[in-house]
Amino acid sequence: MRRLLILHTGGTIGMRPGPDGYAPAPGFTDRLIRHLAGHDAGNLPECRVVELAPLIDSADLAPADWNRLVAALAEHWHDHDGFVILHGTDTLAHTASALSFMLGALDKPVVLTGAQIPLGEPRSDAPSNLATALLAAANDAAPREVCIAFHDRLLRGNRARKVRSQGFDAFDSPNASWLGEAGIDLQLHTHEALPTGTPDFTPLTFTEGAVALLPVHPGLSTALLDAVLALPTLRGLVLTTYGVGNPPGLDGALIARLARATRRGLAVLNVTQCHQGCVEQGAYATGAALNAAGVIPGGDLTPEAALAKLQVLIARGLEGDALATVLATPLRGEMSAG
Question: Would you please indicate which residues are annotated as catalytic (active-site) residues?
Answer without folding.
Answer: 12
